[in-house]
Structure formats: C-alpha cells, structure tokens
Amino acid sequence: MRHLLAAALLFFCLSIPAFALVSPSERLPDPEQEARAREISKELRCLVCQNQSIDDSDAELAGDLRRIVRERISAGDTDKEVFDFVIARYGEFVLMTPRFKPATWVLWLTPGFVLLGGGIVAVLFLRRKRLETGVSSLTEEEEARLAELMARGNPPDSAP
Amino acid sequence: MIAELGHFALVLAFAVSLVQMTVPMVGAHRRDAQLIGIANPAALLQFLLVALAFGALVWLFVVSDFSVKLVFDNSHSEKPMIFKVSGVWGNHEGSMVLWVLILALFGAMVALFGNNLPDTLRARVLGVQASIAVAFLLFILITSNPFLRLDPAPFEGRGLNPILQDRALAFHPPWLYAGYVGFSMTFSFAIAALIEGKVDAAWARWVRPWTLAAWLSLTIGIAMGSWWAYYTLGWGGFWFWDPVENASLMPWIAGTALLHSAIVAEKRGALKSWTILLAILAFSLSLLGTFLVRSGVLTSVHAFAVDPARGIFILGILIVFVGGSLALYAWRAPLLKTGGIFAPVSREGALLMNNLLLSAAVASVFIGTLYPLLLDAISGAKITVGPPFFNYTFVPIFVPLLCLVPLGPLLGWKRADVKAAAERLMAAAGLAFIACLATFAVAHDGPWLAPFGMALAVWLVAGAASEIAWRIRLFSTPLSQSLDRARRLPRAAWGTALAHGGLGVAVAGIVGVTAWQSELITTLAPGESAEIAGYTLTLERVGMRDGPNYEATVGVVRVSQGGRDLGVLMPEKRRFPAERQEKTEPAIRTNGFADLYVVLGEPADDGKWVVRAYRNNLAPWIWIGGIVMSIGGIMSLADRRLRVGAPTRARLRAAPAE
Lengths: 160, 658
Description:
The structure holds 2 protein chains of 2 kinds. Chain A is mostly helical.
C-alpha cells in the first residue's frame, strides 16, 4: 500500500513542475522562526520526489513534512532537535547532506583523494620531466642531425 | 508503409555499419587501399540510411499517424507543429534514433572533410565510429524499435508531457546529444591513434576542432536546459545537481579538460598520453550519461530491475566500450613517446593544473551522482546526496580553478616569468578588489561570501580583457598599432578571452541569484497590491484563455515602481486536457540586471489567489555568460589554423604573438 501511495505521489511530482510551495497559510507568524523553518526545509528531502527538497516540492508529503518542521519549531525545538525528530521518523534518507560516517567515507573523501592523488602524480611527472631536461631537449630530427654531425666531425675512434 | 521503410532503413544502416566497422580496419592493418577505400562511402551511406529512418519518424509525427505506437504514445493531432516535431525526440526510442543520426552525421563529416588525414588513420577512425553505431543501432532494433505498429489504430494520440512542450526544451536534446556524440569523434581518434601507436602534433590538431564542436554543443545544450529549468520550475532555481543534470555536466567538465590538454599536445607535444585518456574518459562519461538517463536506474534501482532489458543492454555497451578502450590504453599507451619538457611554472604547467582541478571536479560530480545508487545496490542503505554535498566538494575545487584562469594564458610556454604575468594582471586584481569593497558596501547585510564571488567574477572578466590588452600592446604602442594588432590577432585568442570572460559573467549571475534573491509569497484578491524589492504588484484580475491544446488561467499583474507604471505581467496556469496534466507558466520581466519573476498559484479562500514573486538579481547574466562562452567557442572553431582542411597552410603564416 505504501508503495502504491509512493508511486502515485511520484507521478504527481513528475507531472506537475514543482515550485516553492510554501503557501501563505503554512507560514509561521514569527519571521525569525519562519526563516529557520525555510533553512531546515532546504536540507530535508521530499521523500517521493527526485532530488527535491521539501522547500521546492509541491507533493503532499512534502507539505506534511513542512508542517511537522514548523510544529517542532513552534514547540521550541532547536534546529538539531528538529532534524533528529525527522530522522527518527524517516531515516537519514531525508537529509540532503549525507552524514559523514563509515558508509559515506568513500563519498566524502573521493574528490579530495583524486585531487591529492592527481597532485602527487603531477608532481612526480614534473620531477621526471626536470630530470630528463639534462638528458635531452631535442626533437627526434634534431637528435638524428646531431648524431650525423657528431659522426661526421669526430671519427669514432676520437670520441671522448 | 513509411514506418516499415524507416525500420528497413535502420536495419540496412546496421548492416552498413557492420561493414564499416570491419573492412576498413582490416584494410588499415594490411595497408590495402581498396579495403580502406570502403570507409568513406560506407560512412556516407550509413548517414543517408539513418537520416532516411529519422526522416520517416519525423514524417509519422508530422502527419500524426497513430497506427505507430510511438506516435500514439507521444503525440496528439491538436499539438502545435513545432511540438509534433520535437515529440520525435521527446521519448526514449526517438531520442535514441536522434543519437545515432548525430553519430552518423559526425562520421559522414570525417568522410567528407577528412581528406588530409592519413588514409589508415581515417579508416580506423571511421571503423571505431562504426562500432559505436553498430552497438546503438542494435540497441534500437532489439529493445527500442520506434516503428512498432498498433492494430487497430487509435483515433487520437495520448499527447506529449506538457513539460516537454516548450520551445527551449524542444531544442535542448539535439544540442546535448550533439555534445555527447561529438565526444565519440575524439574517442574514435584516440582509439585509432592507440591502434596506430602514434600521436603527433598533427593528430592533436585534427582532434581539437571535434573536441571544440562537442564542447560548444554541450555548452549550448546545458545552458538551454538550465534556462528552461529557471523559467519553468517556478522560483528561479537554475541548477539542481539533479543526476540528469550531472550526467551532462560530467562530460562537459571532462571535455573542458580535454580541450585544454589537447592544446599542450598540439603545441608542445607533451601530455599526449593523458590527452588520449581524457578523450576516452569524456566519451565514457557521455555513455554513462546516456545509461543513467535511458535505463531508468535514476528513478530507482528497482525500476531498473523490473524492466532491465534496455538498462542491461546499455550497461553492456558501456562496459564493452569503456573497459575495452581502457584496456587498449593500458596496453598501447606506453608505446607513445613523451615529448616537450617544461618547468612547473609555464603555460603547460598551468594547463596541467587546470586538468588536475577539473579531474577532481569530475570526481566530485561522479561520486555524488553514483554513490547513492552504488550504496543502495550493495547494502540496500538509502542516502540522499543533495546540493549541499556539491557545495562542500565541487565548489572548493572549482573556485581555485577560476582564480587561476586569468593567469594561464599570460604564462609563456616551457618556462614562464610569474612576476611579469602578475604585473599584467595588476589592473584586473585592482578592479576585483574594488568590486569586493563595492559589493560589501552596497549589500553588507547579504551573505559574507558574496563580495568575494563578485570579486572573482570581475577578476575573470578583467583578466580576459587584460590578456587581449597585453597581446595587442594596448597603451604601450600607439592606438592605431594596437587596433592593427587586434585585427591580426588569431581568432582562437579572441575565443579564449571570450570563453574565460563569459565564465566570469556567468559567475556574477550565479552569485547574484544565490546571494540576493528577494521573495514574496502572499494571497491577493483582484485589485489588491503587494510590494517586493521596491516594486508594487497589483493583481488586476484573473481570467481564462484558450491555447491551441490547453486552457489557461491567466493572472493580470500590473507592475509599478515608485508610482511609475511598468506594464503588466501575465503568469498562467495551463491545463492540458489531452494529457490531463497541469503546468505553471511564470511571467518574467527583465531589465538585463535583474528579473522580476511572478507565479500565479492556487486559488485561496474568498476569491483570493496565491501569488509568488521573486526578484532574481543578475539572473540573466548566467545565460548571457553561457552565450559569451559559446561565441568564444565558435570564434575558436572559426580560426583558420584549426580548420580541418588547413593544418599545413597555417604553418606558413607568421606566428602571431601567443
């Protein structure tokens, strides 16, 4: 049943372009609390949409979640308490920013690892290039020409 | 009849591709001119046949032949003509035919304009190109036949998703595909070079125009897509880090890196092996994008598992081409001679840095897009990787890259004088500093990063201008001489400056929208007014309007500023009866510096309507920047030194300052 519901909601998410659907009636009277609610909403995922925060989605479920967030804020929760409350109910899937934990180490560390690893390879590459500098900086043709000149100028037996 | 003709043409195209894939390859190996000679006519014939099939499909959509299942599923007789045509690629099957059409077009272009390529190289390039065509034609014929019939034929079609009935989105896929498939050309060149075991300056010169063309198409395609998202999705968002968007961003970044490394390979004979690898990577990422979008794996891993035929097939294509090419690379790349020595501080060094940062940026998008799928497939755990992840990983990699952009073109080849380059950028640095202070003074209550963002934008634009100024010796020689130099400056130099400057304009737009968006969400009864960022919006009335295949609820909103009337905006909500769907059409008023963006929402109680309005500062600059970058790409492509037919002639010209 839940899957059917999810499928139905998914259909609505896809068929109607979503837009910031915080409706005027939903909003909290205190602008500071409302601003907090908006910030939190941007960090929570609409469960039935593709990659949309509940702030951007017009799905019914997103509306429910927005109401829950505002209820918790009105009840005096801190931001962290609101997140904990939502995560306890829906799991970490709702977080737009995945938490840093063993299961997401690879996710969070890959970009830095590529940068670092690539940097090391680049440095080694440049080092090798510099070592080669002393050896030869001539093109193949120049090399051949040089060899030819050397051969002509110095008989093999007089070579140093 | 037409449908069967189209189907038959596709089958024939498949047969021709099989020949084109094998015979010229054997010919190139045996140096048999007759076998090599098959490549050109085969490539042209393959293109003609695919064009015939595509033409048949367009015809079926234009005449609304609902006896064809694809037309029935995606068209409607009352749809405007432009969307009947765009409906051809607004679905899985048709878009794959378009994909193959562009692939065949690129192959035909090599056959037509590649006369100056060595015969064996051209034969191998066309052979590799044909192997891609074989894979995708087989995919279409086996899993995605667009010409299936329905019996009995229905009277009316189901229509096209209203979201796709949009002018920008109608032409977004062809550009995007031209970009994706364009990288198949550089891929074919890379594989052919690996088989030949030779990469020289001439090879790099032949590859660059194709890379540039692919990059240009992808830039235009991505900009169009993001513009569409901006004016359709209803609140001024322009980039969502959605997997589908990321799928197109990855080849773009890899292509940007390839564009830069190919310069080093051509001018200095260095980084050849790396350039080959990038060419393979750029196309692999294009294939990955096709897989992600076409297999349904994004909707959910389970949707993929339920109907896996298509997904598995493309995954197979992906594995064969990526795995095969990387294996070939590992085997043959060590044979490539390295050349071109350079000091770390040099143009080559700067381009290497560019490649390093771009690669890390690709890695960030790659892992962010695929990790949730991988984790789900391996452990069943579900996580979301949203925009904040990319703000934490992609942005810190990209910002240093942007900081270095103006420096690169001012460095000399081999060994550069950083001090001299820095001196040439003093003016740009000064302007950036002033921009930072000015932004802070004007908008000190905004996010603290915004002034630095604006400084970065000015740094990029002024840096690009400084490069041109230095090249034409502005202010250090008489003006007439500078103008003369400007005239003789190679177009590629203008192209570089425009592309880098356009990047700065886009950065300004992105910073502007992100940092200083004003928002108004309210309910208005007809006659009532509300204020946003100095504008007064008055909902005059709400009426109905009939479109060609929809009916719209129209809000008439009068805009005034300080008592001065600025005209009306008419946001709409459209209902499409055939598709039984709704779509909002925001109304946007722009003055070039900021957009006023008005959306008509749901009816509220007692005759009121929900009205949302936004002021998006500098929003138009995002796309103006994209256009400037594209013009830069076109300028570079028009440079005669890069023209496919002119590599030898160009050598004879006096080398302008570079």
